Amino acid sequence: MSRGEVARLRERARERLPAHVFEYVRATADGSDEAEAARWDEVRFRPVSLRGALEVDTRTTVLGTRIAHPVMVAPMAQQVAAHLDGEVETARAAAASGTLLGVSTNTAIPFARIAEQGAPWWFQTYVLPERDLTYVLAERAAAAGASAILLTVELTALRVPPHVEPTSWPDGPARARLVNLTPEERARVAGRPAIGPGLEEIARLRDATGLPVVVKGVLRGDDARRAVDAGAAGIVVSTHGHRRLAGSIAAVDALAEVVEAVAGEAEVYADSGIREARHVLAALALGARAIFVGRPAWWALAAGGGDGVRALLDGMTGDLRLALAQAGVGTASDALAARLAVPPS
Ligand SMILES: Cc1cc2nc3c(=O)[nH]c(=O)nc-3n(C[C@H](O)[C@H](O)[C@H](O)COP(=O)(O)O)c2cc1C
């Protein structure tokens, strides 16, 4: 799936969606929705030659879970605004494509319906303003079959016009969130911001659920190191899709530093602005074990439901196989070992 095809998905989503929904999904910290992708574009490759016959293999594992390829779906709220069945469709696509999805705290779909689709999934959590409910919800996700907890540590306060904020959307079902809490539990947290997490949340969530904890939203080697020392099993290098802070470095700028700081003691993943196979290849070659796509999957869901998301995942993976072959490396670990990628300066 080329960059142009992803852009066409975005335009099909724009045609199908109310303007306020489209604008919410597109929003970034500084109005630029191409800045992250442009930074991935700046990665340069040093193709490898004279290594004999090449066998391309995209299969990998993430925290022990086998996936057919390293393109996973990011946890995103408001998927029912893209398609009435939201994450049910996304999970169906992930299962068919052989990959994993993140499920947002703010999903409007019960965990059991997502789990039924058969794709592996990680539950994404914030620290809720009523702290005890954070663990209640994470335990529910674990009981429903989540295989890891994604603890999001970036707090985004997007500056969008009031009518673009999901809480003010006119369509009730589209703005539903937190449905895996009971109505009483939901009322306790309604309208209140999440709490900024400290290092202690990593062990608390791990102990509450018995699952590995992956910290999502790290952009510095020192933070990654502290997270791993506190028990994190994985790190997602992410700017929340350029939604965190205007003027922030891009995810790709932080990736090599985080990989070095973690020193193989945890898995590293990346997201934000990944729009085509060469970006996936860049992330793998810089040490990411797998990546997440966010908005492209959301747009594909709006444009074509689960089949659309599957076409996106399979298309990006097909292109990744070709890019690996063209680069002269068969696998992600070959790409890393060959120092295939030169990060942007
Ligand atoms: C509409 C939307 C909703 C999101 N909701 C969440 C969320 O609930 N929790 C979370 O950790 N990240 C959330 N994210 C961030 C994604 O998980 C991911 O980091 C980001 O979308 C990746 O960048 P990309 O969209 O450029 O691929 C959201 C992103 C978007 C666009």
UniProtKB/TrEMBL annotation:
Keyword Flavoprotein: yes
Keyword RNA-binding: no
Coiled-coil segments on the chain, per record: none
The organism of origin for this protein: Microbacterium oryzae
Taxonomic classification: Bacteria, Bacillati, Actinomycetota, Actinomycetes, Micrococcales
Protein name: Alpha-hydroxy-acid oxidizing enzyme
Record-linked InterPro entries: Aldolase_TIM (IPR013785), Alpha-hydoxy_acid_DH_FMN (IPR012133), FMN-dep_DH (IPR000262), FMN_HAD (IPR037396)
Domain named FMN hydroxy acid dehydrogenase: residues: 1-345
Cofactor requirement: FMN
Active site per the UniProt annotation: H240 (proton acceptor)
